[in-house]
Amino acid sequence: MMRTxxxxxxxxxxxxxxxxxxxxxxxxxDLIGDLLRAVPTPDAQEEEEADGGDLDLPEVVEAxxxxxxxxxxxxxxxxxxxxxRTPEAPLNSAERTYEARLRAGYAAAQARxxxxxxxxxxxxxxxxxxxxxxxDSGAGTLDGAWSDPRRPGALTGSGYLRSASRTGGRLVLSxxxxxxxxxxxxxxxxxxxxxxxxxxxxxGVEVAVRMxxx
Length: 214
Prior knowledge:
Layout: H1 4-27, H2 31-38, H3 42-50, E1 71-72, E2 85-86, H4 93-112, E3 118-124, E4 127-136, E5 142-147, E6 158-160, E7 163-167, E8 170-175, E9 184-190, E10 195-202, E11 205-213
Parallel strand pairs: 1-2
Antiparallel strand pairs: 3-4, 3-11, 4-5, 5-6, 7-8, 8-9, 9-10, 10-11
Protein backbone atom coordinates (compact mmCIF):
# COMPACT_ATOMS: atom_id res chain seq x y z
CA MET A 1 0.00 0.00 0.00
CA MET A 2 2.84 2.36 0.88
CA ARG A 3 4.67 1.61 -2.40
CA THR A 4 1.78 2.29 -4.73
CA UNK A 5 0.58 5.59 -3.21
CA UNK A 6 3.22 7.92 -4.75
CA UNK A 7 2.65 6.40 -8.16
CA UNK A 8 -1.06 6.89 -7.87
CA UNK A 9 -0.55 10.44 -6.84
CA UNK A 10 1.60 11.09 -9.90
CA UNK A 11 -1.03 9.58 -12.18
CA UNK A 12 -3.77 11.68 -10.62
CA UNK A 13 -1.64 14.84 -10.96
CA UNK A 14 -0.93 14.13 -14.61
CA UNK A 15 -4.62 13.58 -15.32
CA UNK A 16 -5.53 16.80 -13.52
CA UNK A 17 -3.05 18.79 -15.58
CA UNK A 18 -4.22 17.16 -18.80
CA UNK A 19 -7.81 18.08 -18.05
CA UNK A 20 -7.07 21.57 -16.72
CA UNK A 21 -4.84 22.60 -19.65
CA UNK A 22 -7.54 22.48 -22.37
CA UNK A 23 -9.97 24.22 -20.07
CA UNK A 24 -7.44 26.98 -19.36
CA UNK A 25 -6.71 27.42 -23.06
CA UNK A 26 -10.38 27.59 -23.84
CA UNK A 27 -11.16 30.19 -21.16
CA UNK A 28 -8.08 32.48 -21.30
CA UNK A 29 -8.49 35.42 -23.79
CA ASP A 30 -6.25 35.61 -26.83
CA LEU A 31 -4.26 38.66 -25.58
CA ILE A 32 -1.56 38.52 -28.23
CA GLY A 33 -4.11 38.24 -31.04
CA ASP A 34 -6.04 41.22 -29.70
CA LEU A 35 -2.87 43.35 -29.58
CA LEU A 36 -1.93 42.43 -33.13
CA ARG A 37 -5.39 43.26 -34.42
CA ALA A 38 -5.34 46.64 -32.61
CA VAL A 39 -2.11 47.74 -34.35
CA PRO A 40 -2.95 49.14 -37.82
CA THR A 41 -0.99 47.87 -40.76
CA PRO A 42 1.33 50.27 -42.67
CA ASP A 43 -1.14 50.39 -45.57
CA ALA A 44 -3.96 51.39 -43.24
CA GLN A 45 -1.81 54.13 -41.67
CA GLU A 46 -0.91 55.56 -45.09
CA GLU A 47 -4.57 55.59 -46.19
CA GLU A 48 -5.62 57.31 -42.99
CA GLU A 49 -2.94 60.02 -43.37
CA ALA A 50 -3.89 60.51 -47.04
CA ASP A 51 -7.53 61.01 -46.05
CA GLY A 52 -6.62 63.49 -43.37
CA GLY A 53 -7.43 61.17 -40.51
CA ASP A 54 -8.18 62.47 -37.10
CA LEU A 55 -5.22 64.86 -37.05
CA ASP A 56 -5.19 67.50 -34.34
CA LEU A 57 -4.59 70.52 -36.60
CA PRO A 58 -4.70 74.04 -35.10
CA GLU A 59 -7.94 75.83 -35.81
CA VAL A 60 -7.55 78.87 -38.08
CA VAL A 61 -9.37 81.87 -36.66
CA GLU A 62 -9.65 85.01 -38.80
CA ALA A 63 -8.81 88.22 -36.99
CA UNK A 64 -11.73 90.66 -36.87
CA UNK A 65 -11.44 93.65 -39.18
CA UNK A 66 -10.56 96.91 -37.46
CA UNK A 67 -11.68 99.17 -40.33
CA UNK A 68 -14.62 101.30 -39.40
CA UNK A 69 -14.72 103.70 -42.35
CA UNK A 70 -13.26 104.63 -45.73
CA UNK A 71 -9.57 104.03 -46.32
CA UNK A 72 -7.30 107.04 -46.84
CA UNK A 73 -5.14 106.92 -49.98
CA UNK A 74 -3.13 110.16 -50.24
CA UNK A 75 -1.72 110.95 -53.65
CA UNK A 76 -4.01 108.57 -55.55
CA UNK A 77 -7.00 109.39 -57.77
CA UNK A 78 -10.31 108.42 -56.17
CA UNK A 79 -13.47 108.05 -58.26
CA UNK A 80 -16.96 109.13 -57.29
CA UNK A 81 -18.08 105.52 -56.89
CA UNK A 82 -15.13 104.54 -54.65
CA UNK A 83 -17.14 104.72 -51.44
CA UNK A 84 -14.51 102.76 -49.48
CA ARG A 85 -11.67 105.22 -50.21
CA THR A 86 -10.97 108.89 -49.57
CA PRO A 87 -8.25 110.99 -51.22
CA GLU A 88 -6.79 111.95 -47.87
CA ALA A 89 -7.32 111.65 -44.15
CA PRO A 90 -9.78 114.07 -42.51
CA LEU A 91 -8.30 117.21 -41.00
CA ASN A 92 -7.77 117.42 -37.28
CA SER A 93 -8.75 120.46 -35.21
CA ALA A 94 -5.39 122.22 -35.60
CA GLU A 95 -5.40 121.73 -39.38
CA ARG A 96 -8.98 122.99 -39.67
CA THR A 97 -8.07 126.11 -37.69
CA TYR A 98 -5.04 126.75 -39.91
CA GLU A 99 -7.09 126.27 -43.10
CA ALA A 100 -9.78 128.66 -41.82
CA ARG A 101 -7.12 131.32 -41.18
CA LEU A 102 -5.69 130.89 -44.68
CA ARG A 103 -9.13 131.28 -46.22
CA ALA A 104 -9.86 134.36 -44.14
CA GLY A 105 -6.51 135.91 -45.09
CA TYR A 106 -7.09 135.19 -48.76
CA ALA A 107 -10.59 136.71 -48.63
CA ALA A 108 -9.25 139.83 -46.91
CA ALA A 109 -6.48 140.21 -49.50
CA GLN A 110 -8.96 139.80 -52.34
CA ALA A 111 -11.21 142.45 -50.81
CA ARG A 112 -8.33 144.94 -50.84
CA UNK A 113 -7.53 144.40 -54.54
CA UNK A 114 -8.41 147.02 -57.11
CA UNK A 115 -11.03 146.69 -59.83
CA UNK A 116 -8.48 145.92 -62.57
CA UNK A 117 -6.96 142.90 -60.81
CA UNK A 118 -6.97 139.86 -63.10
CA UNK A 119 -6.95 139.07 -66.82
CA UNK A 120 -8.34 141.38 -69.53
CA UNK A 121 -8.59 141.21 -73.32
CA UNK A 122 -8.36 144.18 -75.72
CA UNK A 123 -10.02 143.74 -79.11
CA UNK A 124 -10.98 145.81 -82.11
CA UNK A 125 -13.52 145.06 -84.81
CA UNK A 126 -10.82 142.96 -86.51
CA UNK A 127 -10.40 140.70 -83.46
CA UNK A 128 -8.22 140.32 -80.34
CA UNK A 129 -5.15 142.57 -80.16
CA UNK A 130 -3.63 142.25 -76.67
CA UNK A 131 -4.25 140.30 -73.48
CA UNK A 132 -3.30 141.84 -70.13
CA UNK A 133 -2.74 140.37 -66.67
CA UNK A 134 -3.02 143.28 -64.21
CA UNK A 135 -1.82 143.47 -60.62
CA ASP A 136 -3.97 146.10 -58.92
CA SER A 137 -3.11 146.62 -55.26
CA GLY A 138 -6.05 148.91 -54.74
CA ALA A 139 -3.72 151.59 -53.35
CA GLY A 140 -3.32 153.48 -56.64
CA THR A 141 -0.49 151.38 -58.12
CA LEU A 142 -1.01 149.26 -61.23
CA ASP A 143 1.38 146.80 -62.85
CA GLY A 144 1.11 143.80 -65.13
CA ALA A 145 2.15 141.87 -68.24
CA TRP A 146 0.86 141.58 -71.79
CA SER A 147 0.78 139.05 -74.64
CA ASP A 148 -0.12 139.32 -78.33
CA PRO A 149 -2.69 136.64 -79.39
CA ARG A 150 -1.79 137.36 -83.02
CA ARG A 151 1.74 136.00 -82.49
CA PRO A 152 1.43 132.94 -80.26
CA GLY A 153 4.79 131.46 -79.24
CA ALA A 154 6.85 134.39 -80.57
CA LEU A 155 9.80 135.43 -78.38
CA THR A 156 8.72 139.07 -78.66
CA GLY A 157 5.03 138.27 -78.36
CA SER A 158 4.81 139.01 -74.64
CA GLY A 159 6.35 141.26 -72.00
CA TYR A 160 5.76 143.66 -69.11
CA LEU A 161 3.97 146.99 -69.13
CA ARG A 162 6.22 149.97 -69.69
CA SER A 163 3.91 152.25 -67.71
CA ALA A 164 0.35 152.36 -66.37
CA SER A 165 -1.52 155.29 -64.87
CA ARG A 166 -5.05 156.16 -63.77
CA THR A 167 -6.12 159.80 -63.61
CA GLY A 168 -9.71 160.87 -63.08
CA GLY A 169 -11.06 157.51 -64.20
CA ARG A 170 -8.90 157.52 -67.31
CA LEU A 171 -6.52 154.59 -67.87
CA VAL A 172 -3.32 155.00 -69.92
CA LEU A 173 -1.13 151.99 -70.77
CA SER A 174 2.20 151.89 -72.62
CA UNK A 175 4.24 148.88 -73.72
CA UNK A 176 7.12 147.92 -76.01
CA UNK A 177 6.12 145.25 -78.56
CA UNK A 178 8.85 144.65 -81.16
CA UNK A 179 8.85 144.68 -84.13
CA UNK A 180 6.28 147.44 -83.67
CA UNK A 181 7.71 150.90 -84.33
CA UNK A 182 7.74 152.81 -81.09
CA UNK A 183 5.65 152.06 -78.03
CA UNK A 184 2.08 150.81 -78.21
CA UNK A 185 -0.30 153.06 -76.27
CA UNK A 186 -3.86 152.59 -75.00
CA UNK A 187 -6.13 155.30 -73.68
CA UNK A 188 -9.28 153.91 -72.05
CA UNK A 189 -12.20 155.09 -69.95
CA UNK A 190 -14.68 152.97 -67.95
CA UNK A 191 -17.99 152.02 -69.52
CA UNK A 192 -19.96 149.96 -67.04
CA UNK A 193 -18.78 147.07 -64.81
CA UNK A 194 -15.93 145.18 -66.45
CA UNK A 195 -15.98 147.34 -69.56
CA UNK A 196 -13.46 149.90 -70.86
CA UNK A 197 -13.48 151.62 -74.24
CA UNK A 198 -11.01 153.92 -76.02
CA UNK A 199 -8.25 153.86 -78.59
CA UNK A 200 -5.06 151.90 -79.26
CA UNK A 201 -2.13 153.39 -81.18
CA UNK A 202 0.15 150.86 -82.88
CA UNK A 203 2.74 151.66 -85.59
CA GLY A 204 1.31 155.15 -85.72
CA VAL A 205 -2.22 153.87 -86.48
CA GLU A 206 -5.04 154.58 -84.05
CA VAL A 207 -8.00 152.18 -83.80
CA ALA A 208 -11.04 152.04 -81.56
CA VAL A 209 -10.87 149.22 -79.02
CA ARG A 210 -12.80 147.68 -76.15
CA MET A 211 -11.25 146.04 -73.08
CA UNK A 212 -13.20 143.35 -71.20
CA UNK A 213 -12.46 140.75 -68.57
CA UNK A 214 -11.22 137.53 -70.09
